[in-house]
Amino acid sequence: MAEKRLMYGNHAVVEGVIYAGCRFFAGYPITPQNEIPEYMSIRMNEEGGVFLQTESEIAAINMLFGAAAAGKRAMTSSSSPGISLMQEGISYIAGADMPVLVVNVVRGGPGLGNIAPAQSDYYQATRGGGHGDYFTITLAPHSGQELFEFPRLGFELAEKYRNPALILADGLLGQMMEPVEFTYEPIDPTSLPEKEWALSGCKGRERRVVRSYDLRPGKLEDLNRRRFEKYENIKKNEQRFRASRCDDADLVVVAYGTCARVSDAAVRMARDRGLKVGLLRPISLWPFPWDVLGDMSKRVEHFLVVEMSCGQMIDDVKLATECRSKVQFHGRPGGGVPTPPEIYEKILGVLGGTR
Amino acid sequence: MPEVKILEEVCKGCGLCCDDVCPVDILILSPDTINSSGYHPTVVTDMKKCIGCGYCYMICPEPAIEVYK
Amino acid sequence: MKKIFGRPAGLTEIIQRYCPGCGHGIVHRLIAELLVELDIRERTVGIAPVGCSVFADEYFNCDMIQPPHGRGPAVATGIKRSRPDCVLFSYQGDGDLAAIGTAETVHAAARNEKITVIFINNAIYGMTGGQLAPTTLPGMRSTTSVKGRDVVKQGYPIKVCELLSGVDGAYYLERCAVNTPKNIIKTKKALKTAFKNQMDDKGFSLVEILSMCPTGWGVTPVQSKQWIDDVMSKYYPLGVYRDRAKEEK
Fold it and tell me: What's the CA gap between A75 and A20, in Å, rounded?
């Protein structure tokens, strides 16, 4: 039996990072993710890893750039305003094709906003976030268990495709305590293969250069086209989702993270009353599970998108369903969390009040 | 006897080596040769005076100067 | 005949694209010579800045990385902490180090990060076309201070060695110049100390180098080296600002 512990979501992330064989953390405190750097400082010390509390999120992401370029697994965590500061670095890291892991425990925005859970960084996470043509692989956990498991998945995807990966959580997931099962043996960092592109000094080989620029005419165009071939592969291979009760559904709720948990309760309320309602939970937000939604839209009349924002993921649902279905929205911005009855009422409204 | 070799094609004709850098004053910008980049490169006026101090090499940003002994 | 001075193996064969008389090339060569003389070329990772010397990643014959503007010390920290056996140098200009990257510079010094920072102070922004730098002297003209730096409106220059002297973590700070052979010899000595400090695991070493930018200053190369003696080094006095190795003796 795998070890099971009751822990904060934020602590589960830390164990997930350590179990993934990562020994490099740099970050700056910001609510509601402070338990990550606090616990990480203890765990990295125990494991002989690097823990750096930086002068800013800008410095943190650039330290990751360095550590990743040196061939090491490196991660940072922050919350919305801090992630905004990191976008410059993430753009450079994407432009240099380096793998790093960034965790965003999202809070209410824009601006300083508040410290309550939110999903209003969806656009930022799934549209690149910084300047230039690029995407970050984005995973959306909905439980302590996934907060433990996704760092490993994130590193594996980041390294496979040489691209930054992002875990998009929220303040509720980070602060909530849940049982977490340690489902795999910790990875020994020394067992991870050396990267053939890592900077380590050029002894016995040609010198290597890590950069995101190319001023030669046409070369950056070529480079970006090659990167988009990579993105096409990611879109083809890495769409992740969980569909429940969707097979016979007249209405499918689409929600991720905390909203998926709340929506699941609403869907059960609807099923209890005989309504054919299902739940599709995107796990990868980029690549978005366009394919499954596209297929569903051929037989499902209604989609209800539930988000803790004024509506961002709904754009992807509309793109995926290509006007074949009616797409409705229920959202709570600015730190509001929808309740199951609220969503249930909305379901009733969409289905024409058939109680 | 020391010798200075100017890599004419690398020289950008800035003249940093020609001013008061050379203790024996044997470097000038060539008035009549132009390299393929369009610069008048440094030339040595009197090689046998060279003492091989390397000051010209030191101040050359390219470096377009080699010193032999 | 034996070659006693010539292009060091620490430089690649690429002809550098700097303007005639630019000081960058001199500093590049000094670093390249030290990579060979200290036998560290094969374990060095260099950091190119943003600015004229962005192409330093093509010029140094060692592993190189080109990070965002001003973030060199943070990237160097990430590499150094991941691979302590590597020798890190962060090559930065005045916009990079003393404007956009001020925080990264000060905090790398405060952490006594075991890296070598090479700071080219030429009092102007070269790459973008001669605009005001944080190091532009009072009264000095730039393309964004065409009548000269007005300290009332544009503030005062930042003296980096003096600023970092107030940071306990900094291990070694020296200001040099590359306008004369004598000063170049001193600069090389300072750079050697800065690299040795890192090799001996001592700590954060920064060498500020007053360097010619004839194009940005609107003078000839020969006038530019004279200007460092006559004007610039009066405002930015040369010398050692911190040497904890000596203080600890």
Answer: 11
Q: Are residues A230 and A264 in the same domain?
A: no
Query: Which domains does chain C possess?
Result: 24-248 (3.40.50.970)
For A20-28, what is the mean pLDDT?
Answer: 98
- Answer yes or no: do C58 and A209 touch at CB < 8 A: yes
ipTM given for this complex: 0.97
Are A260 and A288 contained in the same domain?
yes
Average pLDDT estimate for C194-201: 98
The Cα A266–Cα A262 span in angstroms is 7
Going by pLDDT thresholds of 50, 70 and 90, the confidence category of residue A335 is very high
Largest CA distance in chain B: 32
The 10s digit of each residue's pLDDT in C162-191 is 999 999 999 999 999 999 999 999 999 999
**A232 CB-near residues (< 8 Å, 6+ apart):** none
Residues of C in contact with B69 (CB under 8 A): 1-2, 4
Q: Is the peptide bond before A32 cis (omega within 30 degrees of 0)?
A: yes
Question: What chain C residue is nearest to A205 in terms of C-alpha separation?
Answer: C42
Output the six-digit token pair for A223: 């480079």
Which of C1, C4, C178 has the CB atom closest to B54's CB atom?
C4
| Residue A336 belongs to domain spanning | 241-350
CATH number of the domain enclosing B35: 3.30.70.20
Same domain, A97 and A25: yes
